[in-house]
Fold:
Amino acid sequence: MKVNGILYFSSTGNSLYIAQKVKSALGGSILYIPKYEGDGSEFDKLFLITPIYSYGMPKHVFELLPRLNKSKELIVIQNYGGMAGGGDRLLYEYTVEYGLNIKSVYKLKMPENFTLTFTVPKYYINSSLKKSDKKIDEIICKIKKQIYEIPNKCKTKRATYLKNKSNWHLIGKDFSATQDCIKCGKCINICPADNISLIDGQITFGNKCVACLGCYHRCLQKAIVYKNKKKKDRYINPNVDESQIGKDIK
Structure:
């Protein structure tokens, strides 16, 4: 029996939801990329499920690609909230340069979670979820029929993504915890970059932030704020068990 390796990165559940849908339809083991130390050689086929960040990919996905096994078939599914900006083509180009056995790169729109300075209306979130659910099913159908997609070239420059990625760590200095913080340690435990710690009784953010916003959206008290702005809205994909984000599912 063939076993699929479903590697995912997710901070608020969008990519996890896709991974769960893939597992349900095609089988396999779901593995959280920041905790995964392998190269995929233990699987028959690899699925990489990731959000698009800054017209590219999260830091952990960027670092995973060059170590993946070159002989295993690789299928990528990316999701984005605002604009894809050629992030699918960029990831594809990296896989080719690394000699990976890339078969297809699919992308779909899901609710935006990079909402530090604006609020997404609930009706728009609900609409995006409904449309994305249909799109995921379409992608899975294409995978079953081996209808693969290779992204077209785009005008987005790789240098733009690399510059943005090099500045993500700076966002950490603008996060802080208000007096509503109960020191539960959840933000410390879920941070994929080990960037949050408790120092002298205060939640402290370091300089290794990867801009995933997991701490911001998933704080139980909504005590983590950006530039001292106490925005109330937070986002977690309603179709997943929040406690499973960042976990492996065998």
Q: What stands out?
A: The beta strands are 4-8, 29-32, 45-51, 73-80, 101-109, 175-177, 196-199, 202-205, 224-226.
